[in-house]
Amino acid sequence: MWISGAVVPSRGAVANSRRGRPDDHRMGRPLPRVLTTAGAERLGITPAQMRTELRRERWRRLGSGVLLTRPDEPTREDWAHAGLALAGRGAAVSGWDAIRVHDLGPRTPPVSHVLVITPRGRNRRVGGLRIRPSKRPVDIHTVPAYAECLQGARVVSAARALADTALDLDQLASVRAMVTSAIQRRLCLVDELRAELEASPQNGSAHLRTSLEDVLAGAQSVAEAEAIRFLTNAQLPAFEVNAAVHDPADKFVAVVDVLWRQLRFALEIDSREFHFSEVDWRHTMRRHNRLSRLGYAVAHYAPSDVRRRKADWAREVGQALRARAKEFRLPWPPPPP
Q1: pLDDT over 90 at 33, yes or no
Q2: SS3 breakdown of the chain: % helix, strand, coil, rounded to 5?
Q3: What is the pLDDT of residues 141-192, one digit of tens each?
Q4: How far apart are CA 189 and CA 192, in angstroms?
Q5: Cα–Cα distance between 238 and 217 in angstroms, integer?
Q6: 295: pLDDT confidence band, cut at 50, 70 and 90?
Q7: Helix/strand/coil (H/E/C) assignment for every residue in 2-62
Q8: Which terminal Cβ of the chain has fewer Cβ within 10 Å, N or C?
């Protein structure tokens, strides 16, 4: 068995007879970086040659029966392929390394080890690996050869990888970004994430639970999720998220981020912090004016302003809502819609 995305050399050209060393560039094709001893023997590399490479530190041993055919330090990808060989049938890469296949998660790993889950065996650490048994069913697919990382590796579904990654992240914003992006890009369903949350260890899952609550409340971005959380904590009147506004003839006008329909008050969490292009600016002005003609007051805030001011920002929104209730001669808080 050989492991990794490199092309396997031909059986006919196995050893450099002059030095008794496997040729790493036979016919212009390198050996796989990660190779099992059984796979090496099938390529014609003898146990004596393997011992020579290890003794001369041209190869490294990553685990029992798993070799790195390079003298350099193993990468996370090397450890991932090694973990699949060590964990055996049914094993798959999860956590940060699996979620990066989908271009999700933080750019730097939250933990030093690569997570490989397996339906059998015991919980153990091997070098840069953590092999963790998992009895619950898991969807597994093989990363295609054209992918940027983990080519040929078996990885878990996006939902499972996200749930395992969330356990290692200590920043709520990072988990929110993963969840909202995964839902927006349709990498997984909310129900899939909810099922993973319920099956995951409860210790460390608070950020994932909070992020899912935000998504179920209607948030489509990290900025919206944060705004919803601050508004909810401020105990303001009930509001709609990503709400459609229609004119009296039931013609669609716009979708607003947060809406108090009775008070005709809308919040927009603008994603462009510093400036708009002229096209964006004109579109925003036309949209704002259409809402104003229907009697809606629209307040615009930058995500950085919401994040920096938090409860103070929510109180400011509450003051604006009180003013609208007084203007419409509604009790405070207004009755639920």
Answers
A1: yes
A2: 40, 20, 40
A3: 999 988 888 999 999 999 999 999 999 999 988 898 899 888 878 898 888 9
A4: 5
A5: 11
A6: very high
A7: EECCCCCCCCCCCEECCCCEECCCHHHCCCCCEEEHHHHHHCCCCHHHHHHHHHCCCCEEE
A8: C
Cα torsion angle, 93, 97, 100, 106, sign = positive
* Cβ(227)–Cβ(300) below 8 Å: no
Report the range of poorest mean pLDDT among 119-128, 205-214, 270-279, 295-304. 270-279
**Tokens read off for 291:** 């809402």
Question: CA–CA separation, 72 vs 74, rounded Å?
Answer: 6
Q: Dig out the tokens for 215 from the structure.
A: 């998504």
Q: What tokens were used for 280?
A: 């964006």
Two structure tokens written together for 62: 């990553």
Q: Are 245 and 257 in contact (CB under 8 A)?
A: no
Ordered DSSP codes for 241-308: EEEEEE-TT--EEEEEEEEETTTTEEEEE-S-SS---HHHHHHHHHHHHHHHHTT-EEEEE-HHHHHH
Q: Which two tokens stand for residue 195?
A: 């099922």
What length does the chain have?
Answer: 337
| CA pseudo-torsion sign 178, 180, 186, 188 | positive
Q: Which tokens go with 4?
A: 């990794």
**Cα–Cα distance list, 78 to 2, 64, 70, 233, 295 (Å):** 12, 15, 11, 45, 61
d(CA 337, CA 43): 72
Element (H, E) at 96: helix 95-99
